[in-house]
Amino acid sequence: MEIDVSGTVCPQTVLIVKRCLEALEPGDELTVVGDYPPAERTIRRSCHKHGYGVSTAATTDSESEFALRIRVTSAAKS
C-alpha cells in the first residue's frame, strides 16, 4: 500500500499513517511519501515507538521530500 501525505503537516500526517497501518497485517508494508520534512521525523519516531520497522524508500516523485517504507511486525502496537 502507498499513501501520499504531501500538503499535510503534523499531527495530521501521523494520524493518516496510523489509520492506514491499523488496516494492515503483520508482514505488510506501507510506503509513505510526503513533502514536509518534520513529518518524516515524527512518523519515524512514532513507528519506532510502536514497534514498526521503518526504512527509507525510493521514490520517482521529484516533488516529494521523503519516502518511507514501514513494515508491520507481529510486535507492532497501533
TrEMBL record:
Transmembrane segments: none annotated. It comes from Natrinema soli. Residues 3-27 form the UPF0033 domain. This is Sulfurtransferase TusA family protein. Gene3D superfamilies: TusA-like domain (3.30.110.40). InterPro entries: TusA-like (IPR001455), TusA-like_sf (IPR036868). It comes from the Archaea. Coiled coil: none annotated.
